[in-house]
Amino acid sequence: MGTPTIIILVTLIVILATLIPSYLISKKKGVTESEWAIGGRALPLYVIVGTQFASSMGGGILVGQVGNAYSNGIGMLLYAILAEIPILCIIFVGKWLRSHKYTTIPELLGTFSRRNKVVTITAALMSLIVPFGWVTSQITAFGNIYSKLLGIDYNVICVAFAVISLLFILPSGLTTVAWTDFIFACFMITMCIFSIVYVTFLGGGVSEIVSTVKDLNPDLLSFTGSIRNNIGTSTALLWLFSVMPGGLTNQIYFQRVCAIDDEKKVAKSLLLTVFLGFLTFVWAAYMGISIFSINQDVASGATSWFMEQLPVPFLALFAALIFATLMSTASSGIQTAVVNITRDIIPALNPDMDNAKTLKLSRFLSVALMVIAILMCLVFTDTLGWLVSTYAFSAAALACPIFLCYAFRNKAFITTQGIAAGMIGGIAGCALAMILKTAINYAAIGIAVSFVLMLIVSAATKKDAVPPEEINKMME
User: Fold this and answer.
1) Are 416 and 422 in contact (CB under 8 A)?
2) Rounded (5°) CA angle 13-360-175
3) Tens of pLDDT, residues 209-242
4) How many C-beta atoms lie closer than 10 Å to residue 96's C-beta?
5) What pTM does this model have?
């Protein structure tokens, strides 16, 4: 039996071993729209942590960050810190979001704007571009990796990945996605532990790896030296103004907070997610530096080189790990983007659609968005650039409205006009800074413009602010 066949069989086993129990756990006589969109707000703590962890890990950790550590050393943990800070920030608003039964970011902004259609639809579009961008990047990464492993055409691989991902979404939406993510997360953790053991064996032990790296490039083992001499100030600032703001407005995180079965568990779920998330970056740092100690001329990429060293059975398992990380992010992204359409955009245009029709529409839109994602991936194989742009524009439009609405939740200050000005000003400022190629990151400029305009316009129109008691009543 050839290597490609073994990889396909192991991947199929992982798919079935994940999908079947998840489907049985989530399946009921009749799936409700609430279960599809928000897990019926009944997902247990460990499932929430698993789905947050699996959704955020993605192929970026497994491939990109291992390569980052290989080239730059432990200074790449700065990226990890910036990536986890947004999740910590959500702790401050998480319990409030869950207690008020929010589902999406536009729902939050809608309560402060009396369901204004412009605010709701704009917020929905800015919310869904990041998870949708995640989907396209995961499809592209899977196509590139598996086409090389299996010798199968890139286009065929991408289409197969998209079709399989729909199997994780269509049955019960977030309920299915969350449970499959939890099982994927357990598999990911197991394989990451195995990878550490094997790369340590290849490197001759921890002490030998450290000694070799100190002789070859000691900056790789120094946090400050790594940032100063390898990563550079400009790249560090780019991370600061793209990774952290983008995470603050990533609806995948917000949606899962709102799906937990008990609002008292929100902070614990996010803290555990941050802990596991940071550990994956530490894993990537160790893997990258260890691979550097063994081979200083890895032209094909650190992760690819490591896979080439694995015995065929373990290569197949590692390939399945790649599938699991990419699949969990892609399925989460599609499901979240669909919820923005069915719970925010559609009700703004057709408020009388019943839950049964919404459920059918959700499944149809899942297929439609996946088709669009596939077409984009087949045309644009390099998705990283515009993925970063989606982070920037989403953060510029939504970061200030989200957190200023929360900050003034007990005061009648934030107005519809202020929210609209903050979102539109953030988008315009971000776009202008991008066109002018300003020295300051365009996301930072967009956020600054959004902040100033939102406060000024809200102050000028304060008489139109929604009172706190009206906000609470709307969410009852």
Assistant:
1) no
2) 45
3) 999 999 999 999 999 889 988 888 878 877 777 6
4) 15
5) 0.86
